[in-house]
Amino acid sequence: MEQDSRATWEFNGSFHQPSAFLMLGIPGLEALHPWISIPFCALYLTALLGNCMILFIIRRTQSLHEPMYYFLCMLAVTDLGLALCTLPTTLGLFWFNLRSIGFDACLAQMYFIHILSFIESSVLLAMAFDRFIAISRPLRHPSILTKATVTKIGLAIVLRGMVSLLPIPFLLKRLTYCGKTELSHSFCFHPDIMNLACADIKVNVFYGMIILLSTVGMDFIFIVLSYILIIKTVVSLATKEECLKALNTCVSHICAVLVFFIPMIGLSMIHRFGRNVPPLVNTLVAYTYLLIPPALNPVIYSIKSSHIREALLRALRRTSGVDW
Q1: Are 260 and 293 in contact (CB under 8 A)?
Q2: Is residue 269 helix, strand or coil?
Q3: How far apart (Å, rounded) are the C-alpha atoms in residues 190 and 51?
Q4: pLDDT per residue over 9-36, tens digit each?
Q5: Across residues 124-130, what is the average pLDDT?
Q6: What is d(CA 166, CA 177) in angstroms, rounded to the nearest whole number?
């Protein structure tokens, strides 16, 4: 990778296409990047170890082979993918000042970041549906969400993300780029790349907005509707203890939904409408969106889920060889 402040350009027929983009870290704090990398390393380490731990525990614990935990496995795999997508460029920038990323490599990273974000949104919706069935139809829950059904839901989620985002790299490759080549982050994001073009980007804007609203936007609406139905069901329960017990099973999921959707909506609004937003705010929201959910989700589920905690303690006992 080049460290030069200029990106080289290629001329291909009727349009210009950069051979590389230049990534930015934390605006105004470039001299502190080695120190700033310490909390980033901690977040990446937490995300990688925490999600691997969730996958290991669920795989090894037969009592956790239920729809809720299958969906949690999907969430953990997605969070691992998100962390691994941005880790090389982010730490490469902070540690070695490697700012340059090839045009095609940037499009590939962008594609996988957006796919994994859409998959995470869909998995959170599937988890909301699972909680609704578990609370409203507890006796029929195992027969409705069988292993085969959960597998089909998982495949549908992946295909939905891949197919809906497939045109995005091609829409970006057809554009003419000139002038600025600096991205706003240490990773590639569709609105960020699109705004560097000096051609008409109306098709990109329109398609991006339609896809965002029809996938993530609809997922969020259906999650809210699921919780409205859950609350109606819980209110009808006979005792206060039963009501609190039912709601307690949703706390982890609600936290995961808020941690994911709030920064994602904020980043989308900033890229499309926040022309006057300070660069530092833009950068912090972007890192919150991509780093905090993968790091916090395993912590949230480990703290709130007694089954995960108990399975983790059993695994630690077996590893240490201590008979408690």
Answers
A1: yes
A2: helix
A3: 26
A4: 444 445 578 889 999 888 878 888 889 9
A5: 96
A6: 21
